[in-house]
Design a protein that fits this description.
By secondary structure, this protein is mainly α. The chain contains eleven helices and no strands. Helix 3 packs antiparallel against helix 5, helix 3 crosses helix 10 and helix 9 packs antiparallel against helix 10. Its main location: membrane. Pfam families: AI-2E_transport.
Length: 283
């Protein structure tokens, strides 16, 4: 009896340990899977970002073509083609009319930001020398890599990668049109990864996600336009040079939630820091 009781006690302990061991193994496997997926996404970040941009474009094109189809009665494919032609024509018009101004002001902006960084690094270096709190921080060493020539070389690298940018834009456009032309097929393909009993719910979830993303994109576009217009007017009032390029950058940065406004303000502050007259007017 004592041996039987001891065996039962040992069996009970083993059964209690198995769930803990199973949970630990599942947690470890989950961490490994997430790490591998994150590594794959990082290695393939450029194709992933291009595909994501293409999906966003497809959502906008699909929503616009559906709206035109509902309002005018024209075939959806014709509405999609009309939207694509209008979008390409609008972008080409903007580039033709504002392209020279953007290129010219961007070159000036690089030099002005370089001057602002130089002034900022000098002020921080003086602060480092004079304040005990900053003596342990090698501020000058940190800012050495951000000198004007570093920015100029970065701008040259960007300018030399124009073909890559154009190729990326073409891929995004092609992918967006391809998905927007027949979204239902792609939704069905994506739903195949779910169990058969959940595929209907998966398709409904994907549709709802697309609707939410479309409304978010429209909201972000309105916010970007407002940020760009208000920034441009404010910079003109303050007499800040390169107002158009700075406002355009602020508008584009506004696409990023939360961090966008901060990123968009950095070049403005650096340009103001490089021009004492602007700094005084902003005080």
């Amino acid at each position: 009896m004592a041996a039987s009781s001891s065996e039962k006690s040992q069996l009970s302990k083993d059964l209690q340990r198995k769930p803990v061991l199973r949970d630990a193994m599942m947690a470890t496997a989950g961490v490994i899977i997430v790490t591998v997926l994150a590594l794959i996404l990082w290695i393939a970040r450029v194709p992933v970002l291009l595909a994501f941009a293409g999906v966003l474009l497809a959502i906008v094109l699909h929503g616009g073509s559906e709206w035109l189809h509902a309002k005018t009665g024209m075939p959806r494919m014709l509405a999609l083609g009309l939207l694509v032609v209008l979008a390409i024509g609008g972008v080409a018009t903007v580039i033709a009319s504002a392209g020279p101004t953007i290129v010219n002001q961007t070159g000036q902006l690089v030099n002005s930001i370089g001057s602002g960084i130089t002034n900022l690094s000098q002020e921080l270096f003086d602060l480092e020398e004079g304040e005990t709190l900053f003596k342990n921080f090698k501020i000058q060493d940190i800012l050495n890599d951000l000198q004007p020539w570093g920015l100029a070389s970065g701008a040259t690298a960007v300018a030399g990668n124009v073909l890559g940018v154009l190729a990326g834009a073409f891929i995004v456009l092609f992918f967006g049109i391809y998905v927007a032309a027949d979204p239902q097929t792609h939704v069905k393909l994506l739903s195949q990864v779910a169990p058969p009993s959940e595929r209907k719910n998966t398709r409904a979830l994907l549709k709802e996600t697309g609707d939410v993303l479309r409304r978010w994109i429209v909201g972000q576009a309105i916010a970007m336009a407002a940020i760009g217009a208000l920034t441009y007017v404010g910079l003109l009032i303050l007499g800040v040079p390169m107002a158009f390029a700075l406002a355009l950058f602020a508008a584009l940065a506004g696409f990023l939630p939360y961090l966008g406004p901060i990123i968009g303000a950095v070049p403005i502050l650096l340009v103001a820091g490089g021009d004492s007259s602007i700094s005084c007017s902003m005080c």
